[in-house]
Amino acid sequence: MKAAEFTDMRPPEALGEPEVATESNRGQWSQELDFSVYADSSVTLPGKGDRGKNCGQWYPQEFCDSCGEPRFGESRCLERSCPECWRAWSKQRATGIIERLQKARETADSGLEKRAVHAVASPPEGEITSLVDVDRGFRTAYEKAKAAGIHGGTAIFHGFRVTDEAKQEWARETDSGDNGPKLWQWVREHNTHWRELTYWSPHWHIIGIAPEVESDDSDWIIERIRTLDNYERSNLDSYRDIAKAAMYIISHTTFESNTSKDSIRWYGSLATTKFSADENMSSGVIDVIERKSAEAVDEPQKNTGSGEDEPECENCGSTGFSSIFEAGGALMDKGWCNRIDREQERRLNTAFQWAIGEIEPPPGLKNPTSEADAREAFEHLL
User: Fold this and answer.
1) pLDDT at 38 over 90
2) Rounded Cα–Cα distance for residues 263 and 253 (Å)
């Protein structure tokens, strides 16, 4: 039995960076296993599946608050397997991680109790080979992390590591990652299928609270990647640090295909049955934490040059819109209907009936995949 080591594994040149560009070799399994693995072909990565039902179809999504003109939009499934929606899904999950962790740090009694870390729990070779083992491995990862001093947090499962050959190719192409994509981004975007660039080497990333560092006799390796930035409620840097780590880890989390079984789970003092995130906090504090969490996750998409202005109604120029599913209430408001003409009322009613499934476009226009197709379908319904 070897002791679980809990040390900062960053190379000196990486100190102060928000996320490690390279991966430690400790805890990895052999790339040529001499036993059978039954789980690897049953799991996948975010964005490597099919679109969800109706994802990418266009339909009336909103209506103008001033004149009732429908506004069309593209439906999204927000499923983790979807090639179009996995980024939005990962942003949602990362935001949840930041919020919960920061709320736990906010309510902690002392500075040490607010300290958070990113660590990796790696099982001994051969211990995790089936989906049943993966479920059991979550529970073991929780216990090993708690024994090492991380008393509560989130555990994110990874089934694969990148092969040495692929790492070498990535380093050559990206100047060791300094001027290009991170390793797993490169794997995801490579022309070669990601499975050919990886091998089965299961492990769990832990982002959690660790007021003390302890050692534990264990056959698992518990490796602290880094200590996260200090908690400061109104300092965006405190949120950015978690966001960058969480988004990168979630980008290649591993989950069972065609199921809703989660690969991102809370444990210990932050388990959903033990920690109520909004208790003992004022609404003002909650608002700050939630706003900063969302801002930290959205930040990489800011200042990209898109510069889209607030949408305007094409009929009257107004910028106020409501969900199409609120149109039923608006159409029952006689005062509001009297302010728009009969034609606009008819157009809104038709759009609402389409959105709730009471009517549908004719064959050939039933599932529009562009705004132009949706508008053509709408005209046929009027």
Assistant:
1) no
2) 7
